[in-house]
Prior knowledge:
Blueprint: H1 3-23, E1 30-32, E2 38-43, E3 49-54, E4 58-63, E5 68-74, E6 80-85, E7 91-95, E8 99-103, E9 112-115, E10 121-126, E11 132-137, E12 142-146, E13 154-156, E14 163-168, E15 174-178, E16 182-186, E17 196-199, E18 204-209, E19 215-219, E20 223-227, E21 233-238, E22 244-249, E23 255-260, E24 265-269, E25 275-278, E26 286-291, E27 297-302, E28 306-311, H2 337-342, H3 381-384, H4 392-401, H5 403-406, H6 420-433
Antiparallel strand pairs: 1-28, 2-3, 3-4, 4-5, 6-7, 7-8, 8-9, 10-11, 11-12, 12-13, 14-15, 15-16, 16-17, 18-19, 19-20, 20-21, 22-23, 23-24, 24-25, 26-27, 27-28
Keywords: Heme, Iron, Metal-binding, Repeat, WD repeat
InterPro entries: Cyt_c-like_dom, Cyt_c-like_dom_sf, WD40/YVTN_repeat-like_dom_sf, WD40_PAC1, WD40_repeat_CS, WD40_repeat_dom_sf, WD40_rpt
GO molecular function, one term: metal ion binding
Amino acid sequence: MRRETVRATHVILWMLATALLLLGGPAQAQMRGHGGPVRAVAVSPDGRMAISGGFDQTAILWDIEAGVARKVLRFHDGAVNAVAALPDGRFATASEDGRIALWTSAGGGPVQVISAHEGPIAGLAVSPDGALLASASWDGTARIWPLAGGGAGRVIEEHKGPVNAVAFLPDGRVVTGGHDATVRIWPLAGDTAAPVTAQLSSPVNALAIAADGEVAAAGADFTVRFLAPDGAVRAEVEIAPAPVIALDMSPDGARVAAATAGGAVAIVERATGRILNRLVGPGLPVWSLAWRPGGAEIVTGGSDRLVRRWSAETGAPVGPIAMSQLADPLAEYAGDRGAEVFRACVACHTLKSSEGERAGPTLAGVFGRRIATAPDYRYSEPLRKMDIVWDARTIAELFDVGPARYTPGTKMPEQRITSAADREALVQFLQRATAPR
């Protein structure tokens, strides 16, 4: 079969698969649609819908029982790190671009946009009465926003470094967890009392709150801690030898689900600190999880780009599921020094147009392409105004000088390749791997 015919056949099959994903199909235990790790997931109050946020800058609304995407939400200029399902049926997304967007399940773009922070947003939380939305950011602040609009938002800014997590106590007070290894419980607006501060042993990545006000906090030292409202640690549970990066409290408050960067997901009995069971077979970083109402199921999102359903009672997947490892996109280039240098970039960029976008645009056909012109990718305005054409010289200069200096306004993480030999190897690899096939 001629190469053009094979390529056309692949395009047709991809279009059919995409149509089935978006229009419906048999119930699935795994929901596939993101082009990168699933960084956040939340379940609607009625348990029928889930929203996920991805490293690919999109959020997706899922029909959980049908296992299909109902709507792809495209707005943000960076990874969607946090999502929330609101009591009134709306959904919130927050991104490394510092913005919060509010959506309905109907068509169209966001119904409201909040320019919230000067750095990436890492967490969202909804107040018990549904009136407030709290956000946590790497700019060192947390902010509380009235969902009815009309307010600038309350600012919390005593953490020393990034704020990774935020939650509400049942009485409406805000709890924050930060890179400074503290959990802070803040008084209500207008109360001049000092916050309650619990100093832990490692950075705090995640929080979950029980109906009686107990706080579950976890982070880099593999451990979930249960804190009383006065900040005292009641119990500690080590989950696995990897940082805990996501927590969620069961609807009845009796159990906490904890996920780690190593792929372990444990269900912990809050009263005793005993691990009741573990999800069977994730094996990759699990970035996010959420309970469905009733407490029988958990929904997760991870580095395998999938949203999955699990039985909280047995730890087994709900329905048929494939647990295969994520394919190595650089396997065919084994032994190539340039490919090894590029390995630091695969989380954000693909090499082939058929693989789509991740946090950054695909590099397919990048040589000879003007900066900020890859189709269907949202670039920052400063990049759109630059006059750079990507070739061997400019790509080498990008990594010699560093993205922040060479392309001011970029969302690309700052990284330099100080070795001239490694820069040359990378350029030669990209010339081969990104050429049209």
